[in-house]
Amino acid sequence: MRYRTLTDGTTTFDVSALVLGTMNLGVTTDEETSFAILDRYVEAGGTFLDTANNYGQWGDSNGRLSEQLLGRWLASRGLRDELRLATKVGAAKKDPRLPLSPTPPTNYEGLAAGTIQASAHESLRTLGVEHLDVLYGHVDDLETPLAETVGAFCKLQADGVVGLTGISNVALWRVVEARAEARRQGVPPYALVQQQSSYLYPVPDVERHNWASPELYDYARSVADDDGAGLAVVAYSPLLQGAFVRDDKPLWEGYDHPTSRARLATLHDVARDLGATPNQVALAWLLGGPAPALPIVGASSVAQLDEALGAAELVLDEDVRGRLDAV
Ligand SMILES: NC(=O)c1ccc[n+]([C@@H]2O[C@H](COP(=O)([O-])OP(=O)(O)OC[C@H]3O[C@@H](n4cnc5c(N)ncnc54)[C@H](OP(=O)(O)O)[C@@H]3O)[C@@H](O)[C@H]2O)c1
Q1: CATH code of the domain containing 178
Q2: What is the pLDDT of residues 306-323, one digit of tens each?
Q3: Which atom in ligand 1 lies closest to the alpha carbon of residue 297?
């Protein structure tokens, strides 16, 4: 396993570079399999778990299924202090009677101060823990003043219930503004930004704010150099949910274009030459980039997780990265 240091200049800790996503654990993956996946991750040196307060809420459930399962697993294993827990607020249902939608009207709870405070404490209760190592805003909220959102995250840090803060599904300019706002308030800035990121690029679209652009990676690299408050890029859906290797998982809308098909062919060629799998090469590509990402892998079986864990040991040399980046 590889490890990374996360810091906002005030709070600093290490995490495993491969994050385990728990979006489906306790939701579509049964409890026994979920526990086996979590146990295997820890056995392999994994320390960073990612959840949210709305996993399962896309269906009919209360949206706390993943947090509830993690709470039961943590209680049964007694491992709280050896792990780093990240959860998210802001994309649970505002009105429980209405569905969630990624397009307006979204019905997201948003990132007003009262919501952040209440939702974070509900996550603490659900997970059965006294503090959250990372709390993200799940989706940016343009309706709430940025100063209010930044101040609310900081209050949780000052109260000792949150370590580092982050934001997800956000435009780069908003990350820059939020960090500047934190500096104005004299409080720690977001230390993590969680975006979709993989070896494939989506077609350009000014409306797409959920993707880690090369410019975001460049920004993350630049702030790491010039002040103590780093910015880690955390990459969700790094395997595009199986689309690199499975016919039953078509490429998402916006990703199915000629360059993707050429990149996938190269990914498979490189994997064959290295004796690795395409998924492992894709994860190693993210882990070892000029601004390294922390991929959050999802798995619905221990075998899938084992394959992903193999990527933690795979280092791509310059020639191989050159082949992968040339397309
Ligand atoms: N911030 C956000 O808005 C956001 C959004 C999405 C996800 N996330 C986070 O990111 C985590 C990971 O997301 P994700 O599940 O979309 O990531 P992913 O790693 O791209 O996809 C995981 C899925 O890929 C398939 N898969 C994994 N390994 C495989 C293998 N070796 N061979 C074939 N198929 C394989 C499995 O699908 P099957 O289960 O169908 O077999 C698995 O459930 C989530 O758990 C969550 O924590 C965050």
Answers
A1: 3.20.20.100
A2: 999 999 999 999 999 999
A3: 19
Nearest CA to ligand 1 atom 16: 237
- For residue 206, tell me if it sits in a domain: yes
Residue 254 lies in a domain: no
DSSP alpha helices (H): ranges in 169-213?
A: 172-185
- For residue 102, what are its two tokens? 């990624």
Which of ligand 1's atoms lies nearest the C-alpha of 238? 20
Domain limits for position 226: 3-239+288-312
| Residues contacting residue 134 through CB under 8 Å, at least 6 positions apart | 6, 84, 85, 86, 87, 162, 163, 164, 165, 166, 191, 192
Decide whether any atom of ligand 1 lies within 6 Å of the 240 Cβ. Answer: yes
Residue located nearest, by CA, to atom 28 of ligand 1: 304
Kindly tell me if the per-residue pLDDT of 225 is higher than 70.
Answer: no
CA of 240 to the centre of ligand 1 (A): 7
With a 6 Å cutoff on the Cβ, whether 168 touches ligand 1 is yes
Which of 15, 18, 23 to probe ligand 1 with, by most ligand atoms within 8 A of CB?
23
Number of domains in the chain: 1
133 lies in a domain? Answer: yes
pTM for the whole structure: 0.97
- Catalytic residue status for 55: yes
Q: How far apart are CA 181 and CA 169, in angstroms?
A: 19
What's the pLDDT band for 82 if we cut at 50, 70, 90?
very high
Question: Is the previous residue joined to 145 through a cis bond, with omega within 30 degrees of 0?
Answer: no
Q: How many angstroms is it from 313 CA to the middle of ligand 1?
A: 20
Residue 260: inside a domain: no
